[in-house]
Amino acid sequence: MKIDSHQHFWRYEPARHGWISDAMAVLKRDFLPADLNRELQANQIDASIAVQADQSQGETLFLLDLAKQCPTIAGVVGWVDLCADDLREHLESFSRH
User: How far apart are CA 8 and CA 15, in angstroms?
Assistant: First the structure.
């Protein structure tokens, strides 16, 4: 099995994705599994690992939801606040995925 080890997905929002400058205008759009799947097939790659592009728990949940829906996402590298008082609960919740 061939796996792309680092892939970002997002629904583009200018305020949240402020790091995407005008010099990177090609990135100012949604990037979802359907966009990647064409490339995976063309290059005979079976799956990818989704990696967070935003440091938020919402981003991690978004990626986990995509992974649940899309069999070509083999894993998720998400984000969690390691200093949060409720870290244990978050890690336990995420460990179910």
Answer: 17
Which tokens in the block code for residue 77? 């590298």
Going by C-alpha positions, the residue among 16, 11, 3, 58 that lies closest to residue 34 is: 11
How many whole angstroms separate alpha carbon 63 and alpha carbon 59? Answer: 6
Q: Do the Cβ atoms of 44 and 21 come closer than 8 Å? A: no
Write down the pTM of the prediction: 0.87
CB 7 within 8 A of CB 48: yes
pLDDT in tens, the chain (97 residues): 999 999 999 999 898 888 899 999 999 999 999 999 999 999 999 999 999 988 899 999 999 999 999 999 999 999 999 999 999 999 999 988 8
| Rounded Cα distance, 41 and 47, in Å | 9
